[in-house]
Design brief:
Helices cover 38% and strands 20% of the residues. It has ten helices and 16 strands. A hairpin with a 5-residue loop joins β4 and β5. The relative contact order is 0.09.
Length: 367
């Protein structure tokens, strides 16, 4: 089976290598990639390989990824970001890929440029998607055979690929933990701890034959490499602690006596709310219409947070995003981001009935 996968990979990659050697432009490379995806069983005529599809987002916006892979029942599977074969990957392109993944709610994204790289968006994790697999464009590449195994049409399964990505991620975390341990052991303090342990062992074993000073003198000249017996080389599993990610989510409070009416206007938006002076929180009132689109410059991690809030607190009617319940945010900025779909300073965006910004009510503001 592995020989078959390697051979399929060679058929898939050899023209991509030729494109790299000839330094072709992105459009030619893009077409070659779509052609080679047919070798993996995907078919454009079945609607599985979608070339730069325009996908509606909200009432009037759209996104246009380079390649979207779908099943013939119109289920989106993964998205591909294409760059030139001699390109140098930059953060901006990855941000674009992550944005497509988030807006299409896909867990898998693939970058194809100077190499092939698989990104995975972990469920219930507000961090950016992470790289879990990378393949160089070379013949007889075992990693290439793995790519064929998981991304061929006949074998592709969302759940299976998701489990594979989780396993890859756990392995990366184990290696990272081991590297941290290794660096710690190689540090000055690590060397001291090892020396103290070895010294104690030598004193307990040879203390009757040699003096402490003789043992210490021997230790000062000792340089050794750790040797492990076969069967004892597998390290114990080291779990990487999950990062604590603070989220600015609705708190679900009730209007109190120190609340004042306020509004946010930007373009066609005209959202009404209540600012609670005592808690410095802000409630977006039920029935308001918020922006159905997402500002292109919005960070993927913030897009993910907003999508979660939209799913929970928004009803879509005739393409409009309508708030279906009063939603309280811990700060005016959190409420503004929710309404606008992009970065915003809520202390300046929200205004009271006199047209004054909420900054005048901000605690600690001397103005």
């Amino acid at each position: 089976m592995i020989l078959y996968m390697v051979e399929t990979w060679n058929k898939f990659v050899w023209k991509l290598i030729d494109c790299k050697n000839k330094n072709v432009d992105e459009a030619v490379y893009h077409n070659m990639i779509e052609d080679k995806l047919e070798l993996l069983g995907w078919a454009a005529y079945r609607g599985e390989i979608c070339h730069k599809p325009k996908i509606p987002i909200g009432s009037s916006g759209n996104i246009q990824p380079d390649i979207l892979i779908k099943r013939n029942d119109d289920e989106s599977l993964f998205v591909i970001e294409v760059k030139r074969p001699n390109h140098t990957q930059r953060d901006r392109e990855l941000r674009q890929l992550f944005s497509y993944m988030l807006q299409l709610r896909l867990k898998i994204g693939v970058y194809i440029g100077e190499h092939i790289e698989v990104f995975y968006d972990q469920p219930d994790n507000n961090a950016d998607p992470v790289s879990v697999f990378k393949v160089d464009l070379s013949m007889n590449n075992k990693n290439g055979a793995t790519f064929v195994e998981y991304f061929s049409c006949d074998s592709f399964d969302k759940e299976k690929v998701g489990l594979w990505c989780e396993e890859r991620l756990q392995e990366m975390q184990r290696r990272e933990s081991l590297n941290r341990i290794r660096e710690g052991l190689m540090s000055t303090e690590g060397s001291r701890q090892i020396t103290r342990s070895v010294r104690q062992y030598l004193l307990e074993t040879y203390g009757n034959e040699f003096s402490e000073s003789a043992i210490d003198e021997m230790l000062r000249s000792l340089i050794f490499k750790a040797e492990l017996k076969s069967g004892n080389e597998t390290p114990q599993k080291v779990l990487k602690p999950k990062k604590s990610i603070k989220q600015e989510l609705p708190k679900g409070g009730v209007e109190d006596n120190s609340s004042i009416p306020c509004f946010l206007k930007r373009g066609k938006l005209n959202v009404k709310g209540l600012f609670h002076i005592q808690t410095q929180s802000l409630t977006v009132l039920k029935g308001n219409v918020i922006n159905s689109q997402i500002v292109p410059s919005f960070r993927p991690i913030e897009i993910k947070k907003r999508l979660a809030l939209v799913e929970k607190f928004i009803s879509v009617q005739k393409g409009e995003y309508i708030v279906n319940t009063d939603v309280e945010f811990s700060t005016p900025s959190g409420a503004a981001v929710f309404c606008i779909g992009g970065s915003a300073n809520g202390w300046r965006e929200w205004k009271d009935s006199k047209g004054e910004t909420l900054n005048r009510y901000r605690k600690g503001n001397s103005k």
